[in-house]
């Protein structure tokens, strides 16, 4: 496992991450609660000043992805969603509160991450707290028959060495999904409302972190080599699905 030896915020000097300056320190000096502005909503999110698995702070891509999802809400409403690399859980909490979305969080097999997401659910009035899956990419997925028809993630391409593991887990989730009769009905209905319709299942990913195009392309090339299809939807949002 590769650990981050820096704060993610250091990668975005001068960028507007939509968070306010208001902070409330916890008794533990490694923890801080910050108010973050999402579309038409403010969330209080507890973050770690450092976490060895890098699930500590909100990344700028989270806010951009939230805005994109609001603009394309017809693509996510009514879906059963799994978020990979949930970190603090902020995006999932926003989607639950905004759309009452059926969403589950997931991140490394780490108790501290899971507890922090649960805390952020409680302080933002999400009850019951969002269900969570502890899963390190590449390991056997703890759910043998996944039925999420939409998987989402933002800014998760941090470690090139983890790309193969991420693709392995992603391929399992997409290829193991069993189509339901309701999928065809929903697809037909959406076609009348949108010229571009997401298949079921699909993976939506927002990627805004500044890395070289060569490193970035390794992930997309790896997906294609694994039999997946990659489409750039604009605004640095990508759709990855089973190749037809």
TrEMBL record:
Keywords in alphabetical order: Methyltransferase, Transferase
MF GO annotations: methyltransferase activity
Keyword Cytoplasm part of the UniProt annotation: no
Protein's GO biological process: methylation
Stored InterPro entries: Methyltransf_16, SAM-dependent_MTases_sf
Methyltransferase recorded as keyword: yes
Pfam family of the protein (one): Methyltransf_16
Protein name in UniProt: S-adenosyl-L-methionine-dependent methyltransferases superfamily protein
Taxonomic source organism: Perilla frutescens var. hirtella
């Amino acid at each position: 496992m590769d650990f981050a030896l820096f704060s993610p915020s250091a990668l975005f000097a001068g960028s507007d991450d939509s968070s306010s300056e208001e902070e409330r320190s916890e008794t533990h000096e490694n923890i801080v609660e910050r108010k973050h502005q999402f579309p038409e909503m403010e969330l209080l999110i507890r973050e770690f000043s450092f976490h060895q698995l890098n699930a500590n702070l909100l990344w700028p891509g989270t806010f951009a992805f939230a805005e994109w999802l609001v603009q394309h809400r017809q693509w996510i409403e009514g879906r059963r969603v799994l978020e990979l690399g949930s970190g603090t859980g902020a995006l999932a909490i926003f989607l639950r509160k905004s759309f009452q979305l059926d969403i589950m969080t997931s991140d490394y097999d780490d108790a501290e991450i899971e507890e922090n997401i649960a805390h952020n659910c409680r302080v933002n009035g999400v009850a019951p707290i969002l269900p969570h899956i502890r899963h390190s990419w590449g390991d056997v997925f703890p759910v043998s028959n996944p039925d999420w028809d939409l998987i989402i993630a933002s800014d998760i391409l941090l470690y090139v060495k983890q790309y193969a593991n991420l693709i392995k887990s992603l391929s399992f989730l997409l290829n193991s999904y069993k189509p339901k009769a309701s999928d065809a009905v929903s697809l037909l209905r959406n076609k009348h409302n949108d010229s571009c319709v997401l298949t079921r299942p699909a993976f939506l990913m927002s990627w805004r972190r500044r890395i070289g195009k060569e490193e970035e392309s390794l992930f997309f090339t790896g997906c294609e080599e694994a039999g997946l299809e990659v489409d750039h939807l604009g605004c640095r949002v990508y759709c990855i699905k089973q190749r037809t």
